[in-house]
Fold this sequence. Notes:
The complex is a heterodimer of chains A (about 425) and B (about 300).
Chain A: H1 10-14, H2 19-36, H3 43-56, H4 61-72, H5 79-89, H6 96-129, H7 138-151, H8 154-162, H9 170-181, E1 190-197, E2 203-204, H10 206-215, E3 225-231, E4 235-240, H11 246-262, E5 266-271, E6 275-277, H12 279-282, H13 287-297, H14 307-322, E7 328-332, H15 344-353, E8 357-362, H16 375-380, E9 386-389, H17 393-404, H18 407-421
Parallel strand pairs in A: 4-5, 4-7, 7-8, 8-9
Antiparallel strand pairs in A: 1-3, 2-3, 5-6
Chain B: H1 9-18, H2 25-37, E1 41-45, H3 51-61, E2 66-70, H4 77-80, E3 82-84, H5 86-99, H6 104-111, E4 117-119, H7 121-125, E5 135-139, H8 146-158, E6 160-163, E7 167-170, E8 176-181, H9 189-193, E9 196-200, H10 205-215, H11 221-235, H12 245-257, H13 265-271, H14 279-285, H15 288-305
Amino acid sequence: MSKTPKSPSPNLIVGGDDDGGRLAENIMHFARVLRTAGLPVGPGKVLDAIDAATTTGLENRRDFYWTLHAVFVNKRDQRAVFDQAFHFFWRNPQLLERMMSVMLPTMRGTDEDEKKKKEMSARVAEALTGRNEDEPDPREQEEDEIELDAALSVSANEMLAEKDFEKMSNAELEAARRAIRTMRLPIKPVKTRRYRANPNGARADMRASLRASARQGGDMIWLKHRSRRVEKPPLVVLCDISGSMDRYARMLLHFLHALTNDRDRVHSFLFGTRLTNITRYLRARDPDQAIDKVAAEVEDWAGGTRIGDSLHRFNADWSRRVMSQGPVVLLITDGLDREGAAGLAPEMERLHKSCRRLIWLNPLLRFDGYAPKTAGARAMMPHVDEFRPVHNLDSLAKLADTLSQSEVAAQRDMIRWRELAA
Amino acid sequence: MSVAPPKTVDETATLLRDGNYVADRSLATALHLSLAMGRPLFLEGEAGVGKTEIAKVLAQTLDRPLIRLQCYEGLDISSAVYEWNYPRQMVEIRLAEASGDRGREQLESDLFSERFLIKRPILKALEATGGKAPILLIDELDRTDEPFEAFLLEVLSDFQVTVPELGTIKAEEPPIVILTSNRTREIHDAIKRRCFYYWVDYPNAERELEILRVKAPNAPEELSRQIVAFVQKIRTMDLFKLPGVAETIDWAQALTQLDRLVLDPETINDTLGALLKYQDDIQKLQGSEAARILDEAKREMSGKAA
């Protein structure tokens, strides 16, 4: 087996006029183009690429393509960008200079376009969240807010907690958002197959025991113990943002943001008439920034609902990628489906079968006499493990309690709900 | 001495062909790079497109031992890399006690020496047996969890393992490493950065027919053509799990066993279980739908022939 050359062949780097020198330079420029286009290409990769290109040789354009592909691309979705950049860049290497000058303005052009789009979407987001431009940015206010938080009287807090999101004024919504920021969701941790040292553990830790005993000369073996490590299960959230859920949805986004930043492995999706994965946007630390990004991305705000269709897309496109590690699924919707629940039941069943626990959060549950009689709700009810309200701060906080409560109790509740739905 | 690794992309392609593996030129290029530069190859793709097979074929054609590490959730160091042999260590302590000739320090370093080390796949892969560096197949990496991925970083970039009690064990001759993933979750960039990446896609009709000729040589030519046309057709459908190449081969073999010469709707209905693995998908195709697709596929075939 040949040894890896640790440094690229020197003639590729230094050689001024021979072809090799140009190649190294060209690969570097090409890497820069890819970087501008958003691929994670570092200087290490450039060296790798030069190395790799020397290894395969340059007789064949197709081989050269796949050589650079193997180095620069490390996700399937990057392939399209790479493909375009490759064909554009390597069409005529002699015209490199001119091409760069052609490329750069276009890059800048798209950049500017994007900026414009961003500005626009920021405005859209503002319009959506109802914040006036004259109002000070809440981010700047942050420090005052903390004091305000402490000053908020208990009764005011209580009132806020019980008030429906739908009926809140802007100021109250702002206060609610702040409260949500600190909320946590204590879903029951699951045992993993990894261990940690624990003096009260049930299993013997032989390695630690023998080490300890060898340290003491081996006269006696003191048993050390270990126990299984527990971990929070991954969480997948599917949130309805159709017209009927509109007011809640925005508040729930704040809740989702708090969840995403509190634990690992949270995947969030929004759906109305189509499904959008917003996990990446919610990772931004600042909630307003995150939600602005989401608002810019999602196209079906406050429109109709096609629950069955959206769940189908989720099952087909995302299920295998986000459901592999036994997640708890939160499905947030009012179950009002524009399509009359067409195809909803089998999709719910599939969803239910591929997760650890399916929890349906429904804001309509705030009405005491609510009975799941709509076609959508009836189709969904047989396939959920828990059914909870989510319409005000109080219910969000209670959600935390009920989720850590025993599954038997939840099961009892479900029996009643299923009877109502039947 | 093992077979020398191929020197050009063409040679790599020939090598795979010798091992009865029908590969795209692009895959041969990626594999060649990985072999020539001594870097791991990271293969990602849907189940049943032949990712694992590549490692097996390599082991066979290059005449090297294949060490396979099947990943699963909770895979840990003691089952993937090494474990101390506790019973023997305890006996050793008793012996030391009986003879009483060793001090504490001595005993401790004796107990945690290579004699008492049980080697698991990764550590084994770092040893060349009989002058042959093995092929290490880390299969379905997406099934394990992030901590194990992080552990792999040291192995993949430097081909070494650190045992706290013993020190660093480094491979004299680095193994050929192939990683596969079904992409049930994204693998961390840090791993991917150390490897050459290749997405194994479903083959096109022409390539798939070639695969069938190699892998199911007993199937009649006309049947193979129809199978490929039919499978290619249903891969464009909205199914929960699209059939991979492995399923196509299975199906071709099943139909050959049943002595079919051509596809007909009834046979398809009866044998659909070899091709589709989810009841929903089977239901969707059973009956008139299968007949319709078959008709369409046949029409396209005759259209091409004309």
